[in-house]
Design goal:
The chain is mainly beta. It contains one helix and 14 strands. The model has no long low-confidence stretch (mean pLDDT 89).
Length: 196
């Protein structure tokens, strides 16, 4: 029946603690081309939230909102976004922070070995807006990848990642502040990951 189908796709969660006076509830409802989720938080923050997304062809649109309850009720969040996914690229436009922020990004798999991306952020109430960033990743071979990132704040990040064995991966990285002198504002690091 229709009611059984609705219940099969619906997930409900309730959490409560008497000691800390926490009560939270959430729901999630999914279909093939859309989903909807929301929550009720009756603890200190006391808010109701709702989010959803729908896909049609190559386009996905989504939105989320939150409403604070209590003595000073307020629509504390409303964000929305749209995404277009092509065969080898993806473009996203998001409006966030109560329509105060705009974020646009573009990701492109140029080849199976080379991927590039760009991002632009604008915050209407900040004088140093917009901020731009460019990223590239290149696979030298099956075990080796180099990455680079440059942004308008003067940060240049470079990394070299090597799969040493089936269980060991080594990453070397540096973050350079191109606005600082050669002696200050730079970082160098490494990560050795051993897992089975």
């Amino acid at each position: 029946s229709v009611a059984d189908k609705i219940l099969d796709d619906l997930k409900l969660t309730l959490n409560g603690e008497t000691e800390s006076e926490v009560f939270k509830g959430s729901f999630e409802y999914k279909q093939n081309s859309w989903n909807l989720n929301g929550g009720l938080d009756l603890s200190k923050d006391r808010k109701i939230s709702l989010a959803g997304a729908a896909t049609h062809g190559s386009f996905t649109v989504g939105a989320q909102t939150a409403y604070k309850l209590g003595d000073q009720p307020d629509l504390s969040k409303y964000d929305f976004g749209v995404q277009y996914a092509g065969e080898d690229f993806q473009a996203v436009l998001k409006v966030t922070d109560k329509l105060n922020g705009v974020n646009a990004s573009y990701h492109h798999a140029v080849t199976s070995d080379l991927k590039v991306a760009g991002e632009a952020k604008v915050e209407m109430d900040k004088p140093d807006s917009p901020k731009l960033g460019l990223v590239a990743a290149y696979k030298l071979d099956n075990d080796t990848t180099v990455k680079g990132r440059l942004d308008t704040e003067g940060s240049l990040q470079l990394s070299y990642q090597q799969q040493l064995s089936a269980f060991t991966k080594l990453t070397l990285g540096t973050k350079l502040n191109t606005n600082a002198s050669f002696a200050t504002g730079h970082k160098v690091g490494f990560d050795l990951n051993i897992s089975n």
